[in-house]
Amino acid sequence: MRGVAVAAIALTSVMSMAACAKDNGGNSAGSGSTGTEGGCKLSEKPPAAAAANTTSSAAGQKVDGSSLKVGLAYDIGGRGDASFNDSAAAGLDKAKAELGIKPENIRELTAAPNEAEDAKLTRLRQLASEGFSPIITVGFAYAESLKTVAPEFPNVKFAIVDGTVEGATNVTPLVFAEEQGSFLAGVIAAYQSKNCHIGFVGGVETPLIGKFEAGYEQGAKAAAPDIKIEEKYLTPAGDFSGFQDPTKGQVAAQGQIESGADVLYHAAGASGKGVFSAAKAANAKAIGVDSDQYNQATVAESKDVIVSSMLKRVDVAVYDYVEAVAKNDLSSLPKVFDLKVDGVGYATSGGKIDEELKAVLEGYKAQIIEGKITVSDKPSS
């Protein structure tokens, strides 16, 4: 009998070791499961999403944009920020390639950190006076300038990413459901965390960046109700340097890691480079934003810690807007670029999102699209 008991104990030990070996460093996607190194007690998985309709429609008529002169006014950071502006640049590059826009008919200008409003006015007037139309402004910081400049040039078509300009009929808003994409980022963080403790780093404390925090918090708590969440903004509203200060991003991320967070999500523009650096130094994990940051050359040294990115498809919005102008049909644009039109989403580059977790994410995505989950655009605190 004693021998049987010893054998049973040994078998139990082997089974436990096998379970540990199966753990991939976070939580499994199973209902209510807990990672072997701590992890979160996970909520029941959402119902599986219905299979996508793979029937493709016939290709539309090729759109000719060769006569357009396109101006792009970037927010601070411009091309190379590995985030928001680079996504807009990708949309412009696609328009150039697919719509036949001539290189000499494209002008790109970039804002300086904390510049005076006059600088934005001058930039927009310069583009409009030189015959550029459409002119796409990247970021809500251009809203005030457009209130002045758009009426001065009623025949010029303007667009603003992340903003609206009331009463200006020649300004098209390109807005997103950032909170919906960030909800999925929160689910990813909950499933990837060993400590059931995660962090959020925002660039500037504004209502827009609050949408990222709100969705992230709601998604994480939907997946793991007991999860602990750190949050930190780099600068207060009005000080836009928080989007262009990797050192501040790194210090903020280090503080959250020291408090126990092991998965960090940023909505901080170029400052996110510092968040990635801190995560890499501490063997933590990170979630990028706007672009698929795993594939961004400017953060390549940290790519191994990037488990996903919340995709805010500014590239899609910019391309679709330029194409709509070329077709002279702005009515084809969605009112909001949300999950339903793939205006936001999540990246799977790097192989950190396995099929089990992807099924969970698609389940939550379907519930949001169907209206069974309403994602708040305001943080709870």
From TrEMBL:
GO annotations of cellular component type: plasma membrane
Record-annotated ABC transporter substrate-binding protein PnrA-like domain positions: 75-369
Topological type in the membrane: Lipid-anchor
SUPFAM superfamilies associated with the record: Periplasmic binding protein-like I
Renumbered residue ranges of the record's region Disordered: 24-45
Keyword annotations of the record: Cell membrane, Lipoprotein, Membrane, Signal
Biased composition (Gly residues): 27-38
InterPro entries tied to this protein: BMP_lipoprotein (IPR050957), Peripla_BP_I (IPR028082), PnrA-like (IPR003760)
Range of residues in the leader sequence: 1-21
Location(s), subcellular: Cell membrane
Listed Pfam families: Bmp (PF02608)
Family membership noted in the UniProt record: Belongs to the BMP lipoprotein family.
Listed name of the protein: BMP family ABC transporter substrate-binding protein
Protein's gene: bmpA
